[in-house]
Amino acid sequence: MKLKYLLMAFATAAMFTSCIEDEPANKIAEYKAPTTFVLNQPQFSNGVYDLINAGTVNLTFSQPDYGYSAVCDYTVEVATDATFEHAATVNGTFHTCDIQVDANDFAMAVCSAYGWTEQADIDAALAAAESGIIPVTIRVHSKVSSALI
């Protein structure tokens, strides 16, 4: 009879005790800013891109290192300079690290970044620019995808 009460007391004590830490399997992955995320310099970055005749603009970059494997959505942003004060986002979301941006969408984003609304604005900017070239700065944003695959 003593053994029965002793086992019952032990089971009761075990039921009311808890672990100091949660099991690692029960922890939810925390968001971390990526430690590395590099947009590769395009092959002709110092050259001239003819967006009227080009079908696409190719951009490649490394996958962001969040500390774990993550499926990401990427968006492309263009600006008039490296400060990105005057910037616009290219239409579309991409899901790979080697993307083909539609040249028309890219051109529309450049026009938005520079504030051009008419062909006369573009012609005036090209005439005022050195050697008829308008500089554009590009960056890619990464966001962890909420889609389940």
User: What is the helix tally?
Assistant: 3
Main sheet: strands, sense, barrel: 3 strands, antiparallel
N/C terminus separation: 57 Å
Strand content: 15-25%
SSE ordering: HEEEEHHE
Spatially, the strands of the biggest sheet line up as 3-2-5
Radius of gyration: 27 Å
Shape, please? rod-shaped
pLDDT averaged over residues: 80
Structural class: alpha+beta
Low-confidence stretches: none
Features:
two-stranded antiparallel ribbon, alpha+beta, 149 residues
Topology (elements, then pairings):
Layout lengths: L1 H14 L40 E5 L11 E8 L7 E3 L8 E5 H12 L4 H10 L8 E8 L5
Antiparallel strand pairs: 1-4, 2-3, 2-5
Describe the structure.
- The chain is 24% helix and 19% strand.
- By secondary structure, it is α+β, with helices and mostly antiparallel strands.
- The strands form two sheets. Strands 3-2-5 form a three-stranded antiparallel beta sheet, with helices on one face. A two-stranded antiparallel ribbon has the order 1-4.
- Strand 2 (72-79) and strand 3 (87-89) form a beta hairpin.
- The longest helix is centred in the first third of the chain and has 14 residues, at 2-15.
- The radius of gyration is 27 Å and the shape is rod-shaped.
- 10% of the residues are buried.
- The mean pLDDT is 80.
